[in-house]
Structures are given as structure tokens and as C-alpha cells.
Amino acid sequence: MSAARTAAPVLRRGRTGTGVKAAVLVALALAAGVAGLVAGPAVTTADVAEVFAGGGDPLARHIVLNLRLPRTLVALTAGACLALAGLVLQSALRNPLAGPEVTGVTPGAVLGAVTATGLGLAGWQSPTAVVVAACLGGCAGAGLLWLLAGRERGDPEQTAVHGVLVSAVLTGATAVVLLIAPGELGSVVQWLVGSTEGRVWRHWELLWPWALCWGAAAWLLAGPLMLLRCGDEQAAALGLDTGRARAAALACAVALTAGAVSAVGALGFVGLLVPHVALAVFGADLRATLPGAALLGAVVVGGADAGAQLLSRALAQALDADRLTVPVGALTTCAGAALLLIVARRRADLR
């Protein structure tokens, strides 16, 4: 009885701490969304406020409601999907360097979108066709990994190695497609770097149900994923079918990544680094860490989108250019690479 009384306040404090952290991240996500609405050119912060108050001229209303708002929502949701996919992959494969970028999923989705665009079957004006093509490509990349792994699917290290090989092959195939159809380079380069430019309500309408469905599936897999993180032997001893659990987790990660890539292209390092931050903030209980990772991913990509818009405005003014766009994927890749180098150097110094 005394042990239970002692443990109860500790549990309440843990839940309260998690709730506070989640509330802070929600506030940061809202701040990133507001920053995305006001960061671009053509309309001021006062214009944005006036539009949401029900006023504003027709041009300002069109820019804010039909261009800025869907772009911001797509950026936040895509970031959440990529962060969730990364955490699911790292947990299922027990590899801290596993991520959508190096498991064949992101390169496959990019290949599907680029191929469909090069063949004239899809494009930025036909988001539904792009979504279908990217999802098929992402599933094909994951399927190739699954076939290549063969009997070694239960070995996380071998699966990760095969994922890197599959990613390299798919990236090479994308380069071949671009060589065959060089005239399409300008229209598909955003897929290779990752961009939220030109996102409209149709992209949001396709993305949010997909993200909600597979995000819920990821949360339902929190228990099996926590067991997989402990190792296959321990998980099997507790009655978990590790093969089926890992297959379900990989399918969930593929779906989340394909949905995000179909909307914004390849955003480097989001699915690789954000899960580590989420685990550091929320701990090993994935029932709390998975939603936390989704919020962190939304904050990162939403903030990066606002930063890319501000940088685009600054460069356009400095270079006296009418229109200059910095893709958000370039910002996430540079920031992620810098952070990874800092962490690697600190670990090397500690040794």
C-alpha cells in the first residue's frame, strides 16, 4: 500500500511534465504556422490579421487563404509524418541511423513522382496523380528492400545495410530518368530538394486524412515498437510476433513517408534527427514520444518553411531579383548536416 502511495505522485508528475512539454510544442507549432503566414512577400502582417478578421482586399485574401494557409498546413503535416516515420523505423530496426532517406522509402517516392512527371502523367497541377505516383514509388522502394533482405529481415543491421543499397539504386534510377527527359528537370527539381512552394488546398485535402490514419496506426504500434527496441529475443519471450510487428511498423513508416514526399518532396534529415530529439525530450515511452515526435516534426518543417520564405525575400532584395525561391528542403538539409557534424565532433572529443 505504501509503495503504491509513493508511486502515484511520481506517475502524476511524469504525466504533468509530458503534458507541459506537449503544450509547449503545440504553442511552437502554432507560432511556426503564424510565421509561415506572415513571412512571405506581397502582404504584411497587418494584412494577414485583417484577412483573418474577415476583411482585407481580394488580392490579400487570395494570397493568405488560397496560397499561404494551405502551404503552411501542408508543411506542418508533412513534418509530422516524416518525424513519425523516422521514429517508427528507428524503433523497428533498432538502428539510430535508420530513416526514410536511407531505407529506400523516400528515394522510391521521389522516383515515382519524377517518373510520372517526366512521362507527362502527373505534375504540380495534378496533385492527385503525384500522390498516387509517389505512394507507389515509396511502396516499391520498401518492397525492394523487403525482397533484398530475404531471410535476414529480422536482422536490423543487415536490413539497414540493404536499405542504404536500395536507396542508392533508386537515386541512380532517378538520375537516369532526368537524363532521358532533361526538359523536365525544372519541374522535378523540387522533388529532389523538397519544397512547399505552390501547395494548395487540394494537396492539404489529400494529405491530412492520410496522415491522420497512419499517424493513429503508428500510435497503436507503440507497445510492439517498445518491445522491438528491447531486442527480438526479449520481445519474443514476452509473446510478440517480431516478424509481423516489424512488417506492420515498416508498412506504417512507408505510408507516412510516401504521403509526405508526395506533398513536399524529399526533406533531408527530418526523419533522421527529429526522433532523437523526441526521445531525449519525452523518454522511451513511445505512447508519449510518438505524438511528441509528430509535434516536433511539425515545428521543424513549419519553422524551416517560414525561414525559407524570409531568406527568399532577403536574397531577392539583395540580388534585385523579381522572384527568388529558397526551397525548404535546402534549409532542412543544411541545418541537419550541420547539427550532425556538431554531434559527431562532440562524440569524437569525448572519446
From TrEMBL:
The chain crosses the membrane at residues 70-93, 105-124, 130-148, 160-181, 207-228, 248-273, 324-344. The keyword Cell membrane applies. This is Iron ABC transporter permease. One of its GO terms (molecular function) is transmembrane transporter activity. CDD domains: TM_ABC_iron-siderophores_like. It is found in: Cell membrane. It holds the Pfam family FecCD. GO terms for cellular component: plasma membrane. It is a multi-pass membrane protein. InterPro entries: ABC_BtuC-like (IPR037294), ABC_transptr_permease_BtuC (IPR000522). GO terms for biological process: siderophore-iron import into cell. The keyword Transmembrane applies. Belongs to the binding-protein-dependent transport system permease family. FecCD subfamily.
